[in-house]
Amino acid sequence: MPTDQPHTAARIAAALRRTLPVVAVLIALLCLWEGARLAFAIPAQRLPPLSAIVETMLTRTQGGNGPLLIAQMLVNAWATFQVALGGFLLGTLLGCALALLFLQVSTLERGLLPYVVGSQMVPILALAPLVVVGLGRAGAPPWVARMVVVAYLTFFPVTVGMLRGLRAASPESLALMRSYAAGPWQTIWKLRLPMALPYLFTALKIAASASVIGAIVAELPSGAREGIGMMILTAAQFYNSRPPALFLAILVAGLLGVFCYSLVALAERLVVGGPRRRHARGAE
Prior knowledge:
The chain is built from ten helices and no strands. It is mostly helical and about 280 residues long. The longest helix is centred in the C-terminal third of the chain and has 41 residues.
């Protein structure tokens, strides 16, 4: 038991080192917010004070008989998160499949990769209505169309990151696998895939943030009744009478993106960092 105390203290210290800079930056941003208001005399209509945002957060909806506004926004954020998660998983599967396909068939990579890159040049605001209307006429549920929009934004970074990671193995390592008479899929599973994990998780972090953007944008043409995108649209319509509500909705959307990014970062620590920590602990 005493031998575990240094490791526990080290983990607590490492957690504090990671948390304190985030808290310090948050406090600095809040101070900058209020300082800018006071220094430049910005009216509350353009930049509401933090106290007004907190007050709006704690107001009750539906004429004072409904839930708190922040509770309603969190419920809608959960709906957006579900769509973002589904589209993120779909885009991840598609991106990994394309990367494996391009690795095995170089002709397809040369033929399809330019179109994959070109697909990301289409603005999502223009594509989302086409996907929603097209799949809606085909009889697909609205949430399916929203997930497809999210997958469209997420598959590209996963494809590029995964493909680069699969090719990160050194020629010496590949020659060693061939000397063991390993087949192509054995080489992928035993060598290429472990080497690709850091590249893959870097791409997944980008895709996780993009999934929230795609889910919010896809809510607008689909006529969704719930979702943080609809809360942002409603708050924008009543901006003149209640500006803090729009800032609050934007803040919740940003926190949702940070939450999705943090989930991927946690998964990276468990999958990639775990074996490294165990190896380092065994070396001690």
